[in-house]
Amino acid sequence: MSDRKNENWEQRDLEYIWHPAAQMKDYEELPPMVIARARGAWLYDVHGKKYLDIISSWWCNLFGHCNPEINQAVKEQIDKLEHVIFANFSNEAAIELAEALARIVPKGLKKFHFNDNGSAAVEAALKLCFQYHLQTGHPERQRFMCLSEGYHGETIGALSVGSLDLYARMYQPMMMDNIHVEAPDCFRCPYGKTRENCQCECFCKAEEAFAKHAKETAAIIVEPLLQGSAGMRIYPPLYLQKLRRLCDETGVLLIADEIATGFGRTGRMFACDHAAISPDIMTISKGLTGGYLPMSVTVTTQAIYDAFYADYSEGKAFVHSHTYAGNPLACAAALAVQHIFRTRPIFENAAVNAKWLTQRMTEEILSHSNVGEVRHIGLIHAFELVADKKTKQPFDAKKRLGYEVYRHALAHGLLLRPIGDVLYFNPPLNITQPELDTAIRLARTALDEVLPTA
Ligand code: PMP
Q: Angle 328-343/68-78 helices, nearest 10 degrees?
């Protein structure tokens, strides 16, 4: 590639490529950064400029880019077996991975259904719940509940258990008729509580929905503890404990979507571990392969599995497939990730850095007069821009201030992709304190440029 280094990559990109989640016209002013190589938390573009990837490339990169151990595992696998059909056939890497995952998932989860991206894992989870009830004498349970600000992916089923925001609303006629329960909002708590002193008073919204709809409901899907795409909204483990209890009482299945929260992001292996609860189904992806290759798994209990296990003629099988299910390269990467967790003090180091980061962000970021809150769980630290710190009055969304901060941060070499007016760090778990310090300094510089303090 090096002989083509000086060719106009940005222009060639825009000639043919339609980028995800973007108004393509924005690229007229800010063309895509074309990345040539990466190492650790750093990306290097075709012009040699470097960027600190503080968002783990959409929350998936777990142990740095081009991690030598994961690279080696993928290289070894590719010379053995790149892919094989997963129906009727299997492969060593997938079997070893299922065994490794079985040791770390919340108690009671036992069976691993492989898919190839997060949304696909959610679709499989929804279909499994629907079919489970159909095959266990409850064909009336056909609906789904979800939390109002949730996000579970972009395919139609996954989208329809997400929040009906500006972008999803237009597809409403295509969607399932789900029950949207008002989600916890700890930053602007309607009950005047804080995360530290509340009893999850907001759970009454779930109780109301269950009282009305539980009998017709197959499952409720939640992002445990952290509603990522809603702006890194964090809620207490007690909410999950109450929800588990309510699901048990009413026969509604609980789906924990750990696609963003899984694999150490919240300081424990899974967010459910903070609440010491087990869901009936868990979806995992992103960090699963260290952010290397697209793969997801829908994990279920034995009880769910058993409801599908019968003679062929009974027609109870889960007839759902994806071409790249169980892909050996992705499994090899995921096995290397598990090996790193087992052999390195990942959680211990991340916990030390998380504590330090909270303090430094409080000093450097929360001190800004337009930052309303720095909220955090594990190494994830988010800050929300507000027009008025006391009243938490948001800025007019049309000003796109989060996007402006992102642009300024980029110019300084920090990749800080916004969610509206929420900006966040969600770095690889092995990021160093000096790197975090650089990120804080650059974020503060960008903030001051966009919102100069008096
Ligand atoms: N669920 C959650 C909680 C997510 O954060 C995401 C992706 N951000 C998805 C599902 C969808 O995953 P994918 O983008 O791989 O389809």
A: 150
Q: Kindly state if the Cβ of 246 falls inside 6 Å of ligand 1.
A: no
Q: How far is it, in rounded angstroms, from Cα 291 to Cα 268?
A: 18
The ligand 1 atom at the shortest distance from the C-alpha of residue 286 is: 15
260 and 180 belong to one structural domain: yes
Q: Name the token pair of 393.
A: 């009055």
Q: For residue 167, name the pLDDT band (cuts at 50, 70, 90).
A: confident
* Residue of 117, 123, 151 with the most ligand 1 atoms within 8 Å of its CB, for mutation: 151
Q: Which one, of 197, 187, 196, lies nearest residue 375 by Cα?
A: 187
Q: pLDDT at residue 350 above 80?
A: yes
pLDDT in tens, 217-270: 999 999 999 999 999 999 999 999 999 999 999 999 999 999 999 999 999 999
116 Cα: distance to centroid of ligand 1 (angstroms): 12
* Domain final position from 323, 343, 363: 343
Domain boundary pick from 316, 343, 370: 343
165 assigned to some structural domain: yes
In this predicted structure, what is the pLDDT of residue 3? 52
274 and 362 in a common domain: no
> Which residue from 351, 360, 373 is spatially nearest to 439, judged by alpha carbons?
360
CATH of the domain at 380: 3.90.1150.10
CATH of residue 274? 3.40.640.10
Which amino acid residue places its CA nearest to atom 5 of ligand 1? 260
- Does the pTM exceed 0.85? yes
Does the pLDDT at position 2 exceed 70?
Answer: no
